[in-house]
């Protein structure tokens, strides 16, 4: 049913997937793609207990990422618990005839990196996964969001999901980004302004010339972090950049079908007079390379600034929370961000482990040595192969960083890759919560080039100072 009046892209996708229900209450939506990782075992247990079957195994895709080892994958000494998590996904997908990109598969990788690579993420689809960062797929103009374990069971059994319609927020980033400023910096700047719950209850559409100018990799980074600003999801209307990226991907429509699909996809834009519940505008030129200093992604500042001083904050609750964050992070009020020394670095995660991310880090590391240890985990087996063809692995290794296999790895530490207690890590990930990278770990999040710059200096550093003069 197509309601009258101008509609946003969010409404358009919603309307074509609504089966029954009311916008004011809950609506049953059709799900075009359901993605599973190792955490899906709860849901499989639930459907087994009800003797239910998987309604549409052909629309369901499994991939092992959260627990997979980044080194010695075939080792017989693999932690039995980790092996068990991976085997469970193998068994559950096999039993139900679900396609899986498992540990040894050439297409394996972090679900939000490897699934788009296969052309499974397409404009206009509704996509779900039992993982909050499913918003990443919104980069292609898909309506993609994370769901909980019992919802995973519901989708397995019915290929549908009940949803309350989110409010619509548009975030426009206009103008040009400065040298070295990336999608990660847009995301951190935005979250620092609206707060970690600023977009709560909203689906976000990113628009504006700075967003249009982003590559697909950059768009994925930005949509990925919509969740850290409290959004339900984030998406970007598909355009020529999207179509060019998708053409020829294994699961994308091929040949004449692709051309026909592109014609349809061109209609996936918000009508020019469509109303949003909230609108935010940021000037691209205002955004600087940004880092987090605290224990929430909203604790982010441009690299040229200093750690906040809780004594200077009037609001008592906010002052107390800043004080606690600084205590956990082991930082002094008012110290310059560039004075923060780090113990190690991590380049990886569904936020920033794509080929463009690795190129940006390698560009800074080329010909230099890291003075702290670090791990580079490419986002997928495909990214790893491409990076090796380009010689990026040699740059990372020559700089002293270890180059390993793909998975969630040190983003969350479930596979055993952790930051030791009290250690400080400059990381390309999306969450700097207490203990996120291991009990007692301290995380500073930033772009891949900023992590590379921190690796070579041993402290948080403005990467622009390390760029070749011509590109500054
Ligand atoms: C383990 C998984 C369910 C979780 C998520 O939902 O995001 C993880 O990917 C994370 O990033 O914290
Ligand atoms: S890489 Fe990190 S953020 Fe992404 S899905 Fe894995 S654990 Fe979650």
Automatic annotation (TrEMBL):
Q: Tell me its EC number(s), please.
A: 4.2.1.33
Instruction: Enumerate the PROSITE patterns for this protein.
Output: ACONITASE_1, ACONITASE_2
- What Gene Ontology molecular function terms does this protein carry? 3-isopropylmalate dehydratase activity; 4 iron, 4 sulfur cluster binding; isomerase activity; metal ion binding
Q: Which UniProt keywords apply?
A: 4Fe-4S, Amino-acid biosynthesis, Branched-chain amino acid biosynthesis, Iron, Iron-sulfur, Isomerase, Leucine biosynthesis, Lyase, Metal-binding
Q: In which pathway does it act?
A: Amino-acid biosynthesis; L-leucine biosynthesis; L-leucine from 3-methyl-2-oxobutanoate: step 2/4
What cofactors does this protein use?
Answer: [4Fe-4S] cluster
The record ties this protein, via Gene3D superfamilies, to: Aconitase, domain 3
Q: What class of enzyme is it?
A: lyase
Q: Where are the transmembrane segments?
A: none
Q: GO biological process annotations for this chain's record? A: L-leucine biosynthetic process
Where would I find the Aconitase/3-isopropylmalate dehydratase large subunit alpha/beta/alpha domain in this sequence?
11-458
Keyword Metal-binding assigned to the entry: answer is yes
Q: Which reaction does it catalyse?
A: (2R,3S)-3-isopropylmalate = (2S)-2-isopropylmalate
**Classification via InterPro entries:** 3-IsopropMal_deHydase_lsu, Acnase/IPM_dHydase_lsu_aba_1/3, Acoase/IPM_deHydtase_lsu_aba, Aconitase_4Fe-4S_BS, Aconitase_4Fe-4S_dom, IPM_dehydratase_rel_enz, IPMI_cat
> What HAMAP family would the database entry show?
LeuC_type1 (MF_01026)
- Give the protein's function: Catalyzes the isomerization between 2-isopropylmalate and 3-isopropylmalate, via the formation of 2-isopropylmaleate.
**Subunit structure of this entry?**
Heterodimer of LeuC and LeuD.
By what name is this protein known?
3-isopropylmalate dehydratase large subunit
**What organism is recorded for this protein?**
Bosea thiooxidans
Its gene?
leuC
């Amino acid at each position: 049913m197509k309601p009258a009046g101008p509609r946003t892209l969010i409404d358009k996708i919603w309307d074509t997937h609504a089966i029954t229900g009311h916008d004011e209450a809950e609506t049953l939506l059709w799900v075009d793609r359901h993605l599973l990782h190792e955490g899906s075992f709860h849901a499989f247990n639930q459907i087994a207990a009800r003797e239910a079957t998987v309604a549409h195994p052909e629309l369901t895709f499994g991939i092992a990422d959260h627990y997979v080892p980044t080194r010695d994958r075939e080792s017989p000494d693999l932690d039995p618990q980790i092996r068990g998590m991976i085997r469970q996904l193998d068994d559950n997908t096999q039993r139900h005839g679900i396609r899986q990109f498992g540990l040894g598969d050439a297409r394996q990788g972090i679900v939000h990196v490897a699934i788009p690579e296969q052309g499974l993420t397409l404009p206009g689809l509704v996509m779900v996964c039992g993982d909050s960062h499913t918003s990443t797929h919104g980069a292609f103009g898909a309506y993609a969001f994370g769901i909980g374990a019992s919802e995973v069971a519901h989708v397995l059994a019915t290929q549908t999901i009940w949803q309350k319609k989110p409010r619509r927020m548009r975030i426009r980033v206009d103008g040009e980004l400065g040298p070295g400023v990336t999608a990660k910096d847009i995301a951190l700047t935005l979250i620092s302004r609206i707060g970690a719950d600023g977009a709560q209850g909203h689906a976000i559409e990113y628009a504006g010339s700075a967003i249009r100018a982003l590559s697909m990799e950059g768009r994925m980074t930005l949509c990925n972090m919509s969740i850290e600003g409290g959004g339900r999801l984030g998406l970007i209307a598909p355009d020529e950049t999207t179509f060019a990226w998708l053409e020829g991907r294994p699961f994308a429509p091929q040949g004449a079908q692709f051309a026909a699909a592109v014609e349809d996809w061109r209609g996936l834009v918000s009508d020019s007079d469509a109303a949003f519940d909230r609108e935010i505008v940021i000037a691209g030129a205002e955004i600087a390379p940004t880092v987090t200093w605290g224990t929430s992604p909203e604790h982010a500042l441009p690299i040229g600034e200093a750690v906040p001083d809780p004594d200077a904050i009037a609001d008592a609750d906010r002052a107390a929370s800043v004080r606690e964050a600084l205590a956990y992070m082991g930082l002094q009020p008012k110290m310059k961000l560039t004075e923060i020394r780090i113990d190690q670095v991590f380049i990886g995660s569904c936020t920033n482990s794509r080929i463009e991310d690795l190129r940006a880090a390698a560009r800074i590391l080329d010909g230099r040595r890291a003075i702290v240890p670090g791990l580079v985990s490419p986002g997928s087996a495909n990214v790893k192969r491409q990076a090796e063809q380009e010689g990026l692995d040699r740059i990372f290794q020559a700089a002293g960083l270890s180059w390993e296999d793909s998975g969630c790895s040190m983003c969350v530490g479930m596979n055993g890759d952790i930051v030791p207690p009290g250690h400080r890590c400059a990381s390309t990930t999306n969450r700097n919560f207490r203990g996120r990278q291991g009990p007692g770990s301290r995380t500073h999040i930033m772009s891949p080039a900023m992590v590379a710059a921190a690796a070579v200096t041993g402290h948080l550093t403005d990467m622009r100072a390390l760029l070749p003069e011509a590109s500054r």
